[in-house]
Amino acid sequence: MILYLTDLDGTLLNYAAKLKPRTAEILNRQIKNGALFSYATARRFQTAGPIMQEVEMNIPVITMNGVIIVDPKTGERISTDYIAENSIEAAKRFIIENNETPLVYSHVDGVERVSFLNKSHKAIKAFNDTRKGDPFRHACNSYDELFKGEICYITFLNPESEISAIDAVLNRENGFCAVTYLDTYTKNLRFYEAWSVNVSKAVAALKLKELAGADKIIAFGDNLNDIPMFEIADESYAVENAVTELKAIATGIISSNENMGVPVFIERRTAKIWDYKLPPVNKEPDKTRFASALEKAEKSKITVIGTLNEKLTHAALKNYFSVNSDREVKIGSYYADAAGENGIYEIQTAGWDKLKVKLDVFLEASHVTVVYPFEQRVHNAYIDENTGELLKKSPIRNNKDMTRFFLELYRIKGFLTHPNLTICIAGLEIEKFFYVSDEKNLRKRNQKKHKKPLSLLSEVYLNSPEDYRMFLPDDLPEKFTRQEFIKLSKKCNDSIILEILEYMSVINKIGKKGREFIYSVSLQ
């Protein structure tokens, strides 16, 4: 069994220090299917637990860089490693002599306490302001009160002393394990954290591996305190936004925390891959087969047998994709448009948010292809609603704008990296009939209309993140802003395309220019 062990801040959590709902959905599905998942964080359980409450954790979690292992269901401590008394005395002398005001984590008479001096500098005060209402926080008037109880952790925020001076005291020889790094969320906020030399994320990870009955660890992280965990893991993956030092020792680099790199990786590693004959990205459509499918749909519309009141385009595509397949197959509580040897097909023009509940079920049973009918070539015809006379026919219009497609794609964004999902863009030639009272009302809104598909012009399949590179504009510079991208894009006039391409790791945010983000194309 594999233990998937992730850091939280900057790795699993987004830049707002929150867990995206889709992240919880993916993780819960994998846990339900038997995956061993846990986290190893510098946070206390009292702050990590509420953030992770939507995930149905069923094995212990590692907190405070390995110092405390906790049962996430009860909140009870499974193990705690305290700093030795002689080590605390050395730290206390240094802190008093240098007028430092750290946070001290301890247990006093078995009760957790986070102590700080009333005279603490502004970084500590700002940190405390974000945790108002925490019943475990304790203001102290003296250093003796600050160091009361069994101490397990010491944190400096923007220490007054040089880092080298603190290192000279809080080192392994004096019984400490220590790390310093810049905060994930607050600019120019430096953490210096120290705990017992006997413990680390690595030591706790190996202990958790035994507790969970795992035989392999796959670790995920973003910062320097994840290095020990990476060093003992069988495989280790740094998120795209990780520090350079961690990337240098990682097995590989995955998508960023914002793009849910960790849950997507776990889903791809644990999901059962169903049999599926992979079509080419730009498949030449079978025009003869589509003509037959359209004819069949038209006859069904006349007889109203087995059509379920479908529109003609939907019915024609269903016939086209259900060759050698069964139509209207019930899977769980839902009906699929077609299902056969090459999986499930769902034809959906709009309202893709309604697909999410179906996909949760269908992807567990088969490969799924979602077909988007795209009006690639359009004829407009205006009919007199009283006489049926053709009043006007507009010139053929070739449509390249895929804005609506990307808006629908965004609705199921969390599924796009699933290994059992394919998106098919079915490019159609369409004739639209508008029924009007007279020629003066040709442009009147809310006209009665219907559509008739004439032919299938193209089939474009998106089988993997790499396939989404086809939406990159020509002549895109090495670095670009949202406005520059949209100006060059001939396929979408909305920034939603950037959301999708970033989510699929085709592009990355690399900085800011004023209020605008700067992007670059990811390396293949």
What fraction of the residues are assigned to beta strands by DSSP?
A: 25-35%
Q: Helix amount, in percent? A: 25-40%
Number of domains: 4
- pLDDT below 50 for ≥5 consecutive residues: which ranges? 303-309
First CA to last CA: what distance? Answer: 31 Å
Most strands sheet: 9 strands, mixed
Radius of gyration: 29 Å
Oligomer status:
single chain
Average pLDDT level: 90
Helical stretch tally? 16
Q: So what's the overall shape?
A: elongated
Structural class: alpha/beta
- Please provide the count of β strands: 26
Topology, please?
Layout: E1 2-6, H1 21-32, E2 36-39, H2 45-51, E3 61-63, E4 68-70, E5 77-80, H3 85-97, E6 103-108, E7 111-117, H4 122-129, E8 137-140, H5 143-146, E9 150-157, H6 163-167, E10 176-182, E11 190-196, H7 201-212, E12 216-221, H8 227-232, E13 235-239, H9 244-249, E14 252-254, H10 261-270, E15 282-283, H11 287-303, H12 312-321, E16 325-331, E17 334-340, E18 343-347, H13 355-362, E19 368-384, E20 390-393, E21 397-398, H14 403-411, E22 421-436, E23 448-462, E24 479-481, H15 482-488, H16 496-503, E25 507-513, E26 516-521
Parallel strand pairs: 1-2, 1-12, 7-8, 12-13, 13-14, 18-19, 19-22
Antiparallel strand pairs: 3-4, 4-5, 6-7, 6-9, 9-11, 10-11, 15-23, 16-17, 17-18, 19-20, 19-21, 22-23, 24-26, 25-26
Helix pairs in contact: 1-10, 11-12, 14-16
